[in-house]
Design a protein that fits this description.
The chain has about 325 residues and is of the alpha+beta class. It contains nine helices and twelve strands. It has three domains: about 1-45 and about 90-125 and about 265-295, no CATH class; about 50-85, no CATH class; about 130-265, Pseudouridine synthase (2-Layer Sandwich), CATH 3.30.2350. It is elongated and about 110 Å long. It holds the Pfam family TruB_N.
């Protein structure tokens, strides 16, 4: 018979995401979630201790003379099964981590519990794209492309306009689109390539170089600017380098002030649990919402793919009526 803790653990198995703040290593986030889940599992009401039958000596008063040893059967709890002896029911729980974020980045971090680790591996075998928000600043170049690095060059930026920035972004996006087609290993003149492009399945097979599938400026107020990026197989260091290269293309310099992931596959910022909600009950709710979203998306896909066929009865009636008409003509 499953204990309450085991029943709760079964509800915890699945995928969910948390919001990783800036300046915190992803390992610390995972360890904090593991600790909170273990506390929640072991805090569930435990089952009563099993009983065993023992023969105990009946107490004898001082006034009575001893007449021999008398025993009586009694039911007593098995102390060897007590939690103070056996320890907590769950002493370790495995929480898997999806596409990681470095310590200086923030945003959506996908985690998995139990059988969810297998589902996460299946998820990342597909062409999962991710969205980021990059904050940049013109005028400075650093050794690690971030604003906290050692400054190696300073330049002017008064000549930069949003139109010039948009042209550079369009050029970079066009170059990455060519790379996307090159890594797809599909004949671009074939029907297969057309169908894959319509369904949004055109992408690199397996691992490839980082590819930017979308790039646009959503805020421009020199020297500060903000970019929205959609990408594949990226790292946060690569995204900071992109900001640096944009500054060079504009005959200036630029450093990245922040990297924030806003989407990782099906997970968005609205799904991410903040630090105060890294509890077992909130994780169970997040996993349930994720499964309901996936099931709803799957049902919509089935509805689109289903072709309505005329019922067999109407086809039979039509055939019989046609035969009757032919009979009257003949």
């Amino acid at each position: 018979m499953a204990t309450p803790a085991i029943r709760m653990f079964r509800r915890l198995e699945g995928l969910f995401c948390v919001y990783k703040p800036t300046g915190v290593h992803w390992k610390l986030v995972r360890d904090s979630v593991e600790t909170n889940l273990l506390k929640g599992l072991n805090a569930t009401s435990s089952q009563p201790l099993p009983q065993e039958v023992r023969f105990l000596v009946n107490p004898v008063s001082e006034t009575e003379a001893p007449k021999g040893l008398t025993l009586s059967a009694s039911s007593v709890p098995v102390l060897s099964k007590h939690p103070l002896v056996t320890g907590p029911e769950f002493q370790h729980i495995r929480v898997g981590v999806g596409h990681r974020l470095d310590a200086f980045s923030s945003g959506v971090l996908v985690l998995a519990v139990g059988n969810g680790n297998r589902a996460m591996n299946d998820l990342y075998r597909t062409r999962v794209t991710r969205d980021y928000t990059l904050e940049g600043e013109f005028g400075t170049a650093t050794d690690d492309f971030s604003h906290t690095g050692r400054a190696v060059e300073r330049s002017t930026f008064g000549h930069i306009t949003q139109d010039k920035l948009d042209k550079v972004l369009a050029m970079l996006q066009g170059a990455n689109q060519k790379a996307l087609l090159m890594y797809s290993n599909v004949d671009m003149h074939s029907q297969e390539a057309y169908e894959m492009a319509v369904q949004g399945l055109l992408g690199p097979e397996g691992k490839s170089q980082p590819i930017l599938t979308g790039l646009r400026c959503i805020h421009f107020q020199p020297p500060n600017f903000t970019l929205e990026v959609q990408c594949l197989n990226e790292t946060q260091k690569y995204l900071r380098k992109v900001v640096h290269e944009i500054g060079l293309e504009l005959r200036s310099t630029a450093a990245c002030k922040g990297v924030r992931r806003t989407r990782d596959g099906p997970f968005t910022l609205q799904d991410a649990l903040t630090h105060h909600h890294w509890t077992a009950s909130d994780v169970i709710q997040a996993i349930r919402q994720y499964h309901s979203k996936i099931n709803l998306k799957y049902s919509h896909t089935q509805m689109k793919d289903t072709v309505l066929q005329p019922p067999e009865e109407s086809t039979t009636l039509k055939k019989n009526s046609d035969e009757a008409v032919v009979g009257r003509i003949t």
